[in-house]
Amino acid sequence: MLSDLFDHNVQWAEAKRQEDPEFFNRLAALQSPEYLWIGCSDSRVPANVITGLQPGEVFVHRNVANLVHRGDLNLLSVLEFAVETLEVRHIIVCGHYGCGGIRAAMDGHRHGIIDHWLQPVRDVADRNAGRLAEIGDPEKQQDLLCELTIKAQVESLSRTPILRSAWKRGKFLSVHGWVYGLKDGLLRDLDCGCGEAHSAFPEAGDCGNA
Ligand code: ZN
Fold first, then answer.
1. Which of 81, 119, 157, 206 is deepest in the core (most CB within 10 A)?
2. Residues 178 and 187 sit within 8 Å (Cβ to Cβ)
3. How does strand 35-40 pair with strand 90-96?
4. pTM above 0.90?
5. 152: CA distance to ligand 1 center in Å?
6. Structural domains of the chain in order of their starting residue, each with its CATH number
7. Span from the CA of 171 to the centroid of ligand 1 (angstroms)
8. What does pLDDT average to over the chain?
């Protein structure tokens, strides 16, 4: 029922006010999140809920299969605003096992416009065809492709002019690749990031380890 959503909203706002009377006044005046989250649109992977972050603590961009298309004005606008105005410290690209986008990219069927969107996943699969073919179990194969795709998006993000320029100017900013397990509710760091928090800090605005 749609009316339930409004009822829950009223209860939630009231509970927040009880807990911290200044909560909404403070948030309405300013947001200063430390994190930018680039995740999948999947309803089972809500950034705030799985990380325990409150409103105001994470800036979020989501699309199917958490992809970084270099010509995506939506993502690039979010990225530039997050880096230059909000001055986030960490950018997290978070995919998840069991991703329908990854599955759709590989099932050989025609799905429509989404097939164009998912092309970067197939590119990653083509580049890693040998490694993927060695895995017999289709679920494990998809898990590996999911991880490889996240790593490729971290790489892609790190090569954008927005991040290169930020690093060149000495901004403290790191990019991370994480994967979330739908079956256990846990996040894992794929250790493929770059930036100040990683050994591969790209001094020349270049990230070579993803
Ligand atoms: Zn997904």
1. 157
2. yes
3. parallel
4. yes
5. 16
6. 31-204 (3.40.1050.10)
7. 31
8. 92
pLDDT for the residue numbered 173: 94
Annotated catalytic residues are 40, 42, 44, 96, 99
CA of 66 to the centre of ligand 1 (A): 7
Q: Does residue 202 have a pLDDT over 60? A: no
Q: State residue 204's pLDDT score.
A: 39
Task: Give the C-alpha separation, 114 to 34, whole Å.
Answer: 31
- Output 75-83 pairs: Cβ under 8 A, ≥24 positions apart: 75/38, 76/160, 76/162, 78/36, 79/36, 79/157, 79/160, 79/162, 79/163, 80/162, 82/33, 82/36, 83/36, 83/162, 83/163, 83/166, 83/171, 83/173
Q: What distance in angstroms lies between residue 39's CA and the mean position of ligand 1's atoms?
A: 8
- Tokens matching residue 131: 């490694």
Ligand 1 center from residue 179 Cα (angstroms)? 11
Judge whether 122 and 67 are in contact, CB under 8 Å.
no
C-alpha distance from residue 112 to each of 5, 36, 115, 117, 196 (Å) = 32, 30, 6, 10, 40
CA gap 62, 74 in Å, rounded: 10
Place of tokens 């739908």: 182
How close is the Cα of 206 to the center of ligand 1, in Å? 28
For the cut 90, the answer to whether the pLDDT of residue 186 exceeds it is yes
